[in-house]
Amino acid sequence: MRIEQAALCAFFFLLVAIAGCAKENSAPAARAGNLDLSGWTFERDGPVELDGEWEFYWHQLLGPDDFASGRLPAGTGYFSIPAYWNGHDANGRPLSGSGCATHRLLVRLKPGQGPLALKTECMGGSYRIWANGNLVLWGGDMDGKDALRMPGDFIVMHAGLSDPGGNLEIVFQVSNEIFHTGGPSRKITLGEASRIAAERMVYWSIDVLLFGCLAIIGLYHIVFFLLRRKDRTSLYFGCMCLLWSMELLIMGALRGNSFLIVFSTYPAWLAIFRLELLCWFLFTPFLLMFVSSLYPQEASQRTVRLFQAAAALFSIAALFAPERFLGRYAIFPYELISMGGAGYALYLLARAAARKRAGAVTIAAGYLILFLAAVNDFLFVNNIVYTFYSLSLGIAGMIFAQAFALSRRFSHALSASETLVKELEKNLLLQRQLLQSREREERAVVLAQKEALLKLRYQLNPHFLFNVLTSIRGAIAGKAEVAREMVTALAEFCRLTLAGGEAESLTVGEEVRQTGLYLMIEQIRQGGYLKVSWNVDPGAEDVRIPSFTLQPLVENAVKYGKQTSPEELCIEVGIRRCKDRVVLEVANTGRLAAPEAGGAGRTKGIGLENLRQRLVRFYAGDFSLKVLEENGWVRAVIDAPAGKPARTAQAAKSA
To answer: Per residue in 441-462, pLDDT tens?
Structure first.
C-alpha cells in the first residue's frame, strides 16, 4: 500500500509540474478601460493577462473607426473580463447570454519593448480583436458574412503585433447566438512574441504527450478485449481513453489551444463541434460501465442504465439537432448529468475501497484526481473560478492509477501462475512416479497370478495323466482294440491340451471337446457301466471360462461315483447361459463322499481345491461353486459371469 501511495503522490506532483506551465503572474489589472503597463518589462516579467474593467458597449458592434473621430459612442459602463454577460446589469436590466457587444481597452506600454504578440483562449461565441486598428484575432461568424471576409483561417487565436509604440488600443467584438452563456469569458494575453509562441508549443507538447498515451493505452485495452472477450472491463476502459484522446485533439489539455481548434471553414468547425460533444456525451456512460464492471456488487445496474439512456439521447441530439439547440439546451444540462455520473462513480469506488475489494484503493485514489479535475472544469467553464482545463490531467491520473493497479494485478497473477506451475510440475512428477509404482505392482500381481495358475495347472496335469494311464493299463490287459482307441483318444486330448499352450482360458466349446475325450476314454475303459449325457446351450459355446474347469469336476464324478454307485454310474454335464451369467453343472449318481487321504497315488482332493483357487483369481471372487447331494445324485454347480472381469483383463493386457 505504501508503494501505491508513493507512486500516486509522485504522479500528482508531476501533474502539478505540468500545470505549472499555466502559472499566472501578478500583473496590474485594468481600471475604467485603461491598463497601465508602463512599468512592466515583458522580457523580464513575462506575459500579462489583460484582465479587469473594459469599456462596454452593449448591442453594438463597433470597429476602430468608430473610436477614431475622438467622440466616443454611447457606452454601457464597464465590464470585467473574463466573464459571461449572463446576469450582468446593463441600463438597469440583467443581460442574458445572447446578443453582441464591443469591449475596448487602452494599454499604456513601456517604450522600447521587443516584438509583442496577442493570444486568446477558446471563446464561447464569435469574436474579432483589433490592435491599433489592425484586425489580428478572430473566430466564428459575426453576421453571416465574416466567413467570406476573413483574410485567412476561420479561427485565429495567436498573432504578432507591429510595433505598438507606447500605447495600444484593443477593440474586442463578441457575439453569441448559439450558447446559453455568452461574452468575453476567456483571457486575452499580451506578451513577448517569442515567449507566447514557446508557451503555446508547451501546451501543444502536453496535448501530444497525453493524446499519444491515451490513444496507445486505449487501443491496447481494446485489442486485449478482442483477444479475451470474457471480461468487458478492458473494452470500457479502452473506449474511455480513445474518447478523451479525441477530446484532447479538439479542445487541448490546458488552455483550449489545440491543433484542431483552428479551422478553415464554418462547416468544418460545426462538424468538429458535434464530434467534441459526442465524445463528451459518451465518456460518462463508459466511465460508469467501467467502474460497475470492476465492482459489480457495489453498482446498481438500473442507475447505470439511466445514465446510458441520457447519454444516448444527448448523443443523438449531437448528431442531428441544430447547433443553436445544442448550445442552449444540451451543454449545461449535460454538465450536471456528467457531474452526477462522476459523483456516483466516486461513491462506487469509495464503497469498494471500504469493503477492501482488490485494487479499489489504488483506483479510487486515481479517480479522485479525475473527480477533482472535473469539479475544477465545471467551475472553470461556468467562470466560478478561473484556473485552466484540468480534466485531461485528471484522466491521465486515473489512467496511471488503473495502469498501476493492472500491472500489480498482472504481477500477482504471474507470481501465482508461476507457483501453480511449480506445484503442478511437482504433482505431475509425483503422479508419474505413483503411476509407475502402480504399474510395477500390477505387473507383479499379474505375473504372480500367472505363476500361480501355471503351478496349479502343472499340479493338475500329472494328476490327470496318472488316472488316464491307469485306465489305459487296465484296458491293455483286455482287448488291444480297446487300448488302441484309448491311446488315440489320449493322443487327441494331449494334442488339444498342448496346442492351447499356457492359455489361461478356453471357450466352453473347446473345454467340452477336451472333457469329452477324457470321458470317452473312461467309457471305453468302463464299458457299459459308465453312461454320459451332455446338455450344452449353443449360446454358451463362445463364453470363455478358465481352462480345465470341467475336467476336475468330471474326474471327481467318475472317481467318487464309482465308490457310491456300484450298479451303474450315470454322469450328466449341463451348460446354460442366463443373460450375462453362465452355469456349469456336473452330476453323477451316488452319494457325496469325502476325498480319500491315504497312501500313494491318492489325490487328496487337490482337483477341487485347484479349481476353486483358479476361479477366485479368474473371476476376482464373482462366482459360486457348490457341491450338493439330492435324490441320489451328487451335483457340482458353478455360477460365474459370462466373460472375464474388465479389471482382470486390463491387468493381463498391461502385463
So the answer is: 878 876 776 676 566 555 555 6
